[in-house]
Amino acid sequence: MRFNLSINDIKYVKILLKDNHNNPELIRAAMRSVDDLEIVVCLPQDSIHEIKTPQEVTLSIVCEEGLYRTKTKLKSISIKDNFLLLFLETPSGIEYQQNREFFRVQMSYNCAYYVTMGEEVKNYTGITKDISANGVSIILPTLAVSEDDAELEMMIEERLIHTKVRYVRSEALNDKYLISFTYTDIKNSDRDYISKTCLQKQLERKRNYTSL
């Protein structure tokens, strides 16, 4: 489809690029301006270092209704008021990738994870790392995975949400573990609440970026 997004349509962007050592790096940035020729995004000055220009990058654009992705060129980088400004060519086309309700948003809430091992139910406490209306990632002090669906309770704002979850993947984080799940049994009202909370957080972060 033809690129015709305005700055009011866009919450934030993600850019997959390479540093001077040719290592891939994924950054998140706020939209500063967009027109037919150029897109300008901004992020804190210490977010990235030694990025070569020009280079081809993958641009993901997060809008209220979904995620769009395209290839474009990062033309140059400048510094203004302790922020990096990245100047990109406005692409001619763009592809729709994903519905907005499945975006993972970084949010930290207390959670309890219940795993059945044999005839025993073990309870682990941790915190969430990111949440969406489709799943959640949590940080635990130990790696505890059930082949069957497990149970998870999350205190999101002032609402206790109980859901069954299925293990997707895990990774070590120093002396802890990041474990990702998809929901297998959750109330529609709780899913809607999570979706609205994620959207509110995204809007808050967009306002914080654009006010800088």
Topology readout:
Elements: E1 10-18, E2 24-34, E3 38-44, E4 55-63, E5 66-80, E6 83-89, E7 95-99, E8 105-106, E9 110-117, E10 120-131, E11 135-140, E12 150-156, E13 159-173, E14 176-185, H1 188-210
Antiparallel strand pairs: 1-2, 1-4, 2-3, 3-6, 4-5, 5-6, 5-7, 8-10, 9-10, 9-12, 10-11, 11-14, 12-13, 13-14
What is the 3D shape? elongated
Q: Provide a count of the helices.
A: 1
Strand content: over 45%
Residues in helix, %: 10-25%
- Elements, N to C (H/E): EEEEEEEEEEEEEEH
Radius of gyration: 20 Å
Strand order of the largest sheet: 1-2-3-6-5-4
The largest pleated sheet is described as:
6 strands, antiparallel, barrel
- Strand tally: 14
Given as residue ranges, the uncertain stretches (5+ residues, pLDDT < 50) are none
The end-to-end distance, rounded to whole angstroms, is: 32 Å
Structural class: mainly beta
pLDDT averaged over residues: 85
Give a written overview of the molecule.
With 212 residues, the protein is mainly beta. It has 1 helix and 14 strands. The longest helix is centred in the last third of the chain and has 23 residues, at 188-210.
Q: Short description, anyone?
A:
The protein has 212 residues and is mainly beta. It has one helix spanning 188-210; strands at 10-18, 24-34, 38-44, 55-63, 66-80, 83-89, 95-99, 105-106, 110-117, 120-131, 135-140, 150-156, 159-173, 176-185. The longest helix is centred in the C-terminal third of the chain and has 23 residues, at 188-210.
